[in-house]
Fold this sequence. Notes:
Elements: H1 2-19, H2 45-51, H3 54-61, H4 63-69, H5 72-78, H6 88-94, E1 97-101, E2 104-105, E3 109-112, E4 117-119, H7 121-134, E5 140-144, H8 150-156, E6 161-162, H9 170-173, E7 176-185, E8 187-192, E9 207-211, H10 215-223, E10 228-232, H11 235-243, E11 249-253, H12 254-263, E12 268-271, E13 278-285, H13 289-305, H14 307-316, H15 328-331
Parallel strand pairs: 1-5, 1-6, 9-10, 9-11
Antiparallel strand pairs: 2-3, 3-4, 6-13, 7-13, 8-11, 8-12
Helix pairs in contact: 3-4, 7-13
The protein binds glutamic acid.
Amino acid sequence: MRKTGSTLLVLVAVVLMAACGGNPPAATSVPATAVPTAVMAGETPTAMMAAESPTAMMAAESPTAMMAAETPSAVMTATTGPAADTSLAAIKQRGKLIAGVKYDVRIFGYLNPETNKVEGFDVDLAKAVAKRIFGDENAVEFQEAISANRIPYLNEGKVDVIFSTMTANEDRAKQIEFSDTYYVAGQSLLVPVNSTITSVKDLAGKKVGTVSGSTSEKNIRAFAPEATVELFSKYGEAVQAMDAGRVDVVTTDDIILLGFAKDAPDKFKVVGGQFTQEPYAAGIKKGNTELLAEVNGAIRDLISSGEYATLYKKWIGSDPASTPPQDWREVYKTAPVIPTAMPVATGTP
Length: 349
Ligand code: GLU
């Protein structure tokens, strides 16, 4: 009886570990190139599916798990095997950079179904880092990194660097390194064109869709405590739910929402201005200062050569009003742009 009990326990542990995306204890070292999700064309739908590993899904499905997914302890429980080596030396030896980007966010990281390639500002920045390290902007493989799995992916060594509309903040900086700021967004609202909602102050009793593991989730709970927050794992899913009438509004960074509004201007509009500051920076594993220096070198070179302004114009659709402050902490010292009930500009490509 006792034996059956312990056998059962072992079985349960194995099943749980598998569900958490853990590697069997026998695996002693998993080079990044051998990580199952590190599929070469990270730009294919297969890679997308792979990126939604049980780890990501579990984390994405409950708010508690989601919040936990960003804490070091949750990362530890999700990782039973040793993390793959993402040091600069290992990246050079591998011959390519592995970058985590969004796949459903136009303007920053989008898997274009026509080309079957990922594209966007974040994608181009990752290519610039590959060019700096290898002299070849194509020496980069992309993995889909949704909001909830960005930090776990870095800690597990699934990706070397995250360029995934990621806000740098003190909480996250305890867990990973952040590069220089490369864009400053602000949280806003996407609503159906006929909606009467014009500001974050109009959300009492409304259903608000957003994504687990995002700053948007935390912020909206603070800014609209009387709203009901519905969590999704990706922004595209939240927008689909709004289209089907299951939520009244979708909230996240204005530049992400603008991409959805631009896709369907007859259905959606962005309202409410910016009610937070969201400085975007690349994420790198804690302590990986050599890679951090390369990422910062690439961003600084882009800015000084004028290439940053070209990329900004290509993706954001206008000239940058100013260069973002190198240190993301500086961004929080300035007030967000709050034209309360004003729609933000729609000049996207
Ligand atoms: N920039 C915010 C964040 O990093 C919201 C957008 C996102 O989830 O990627 O949480």
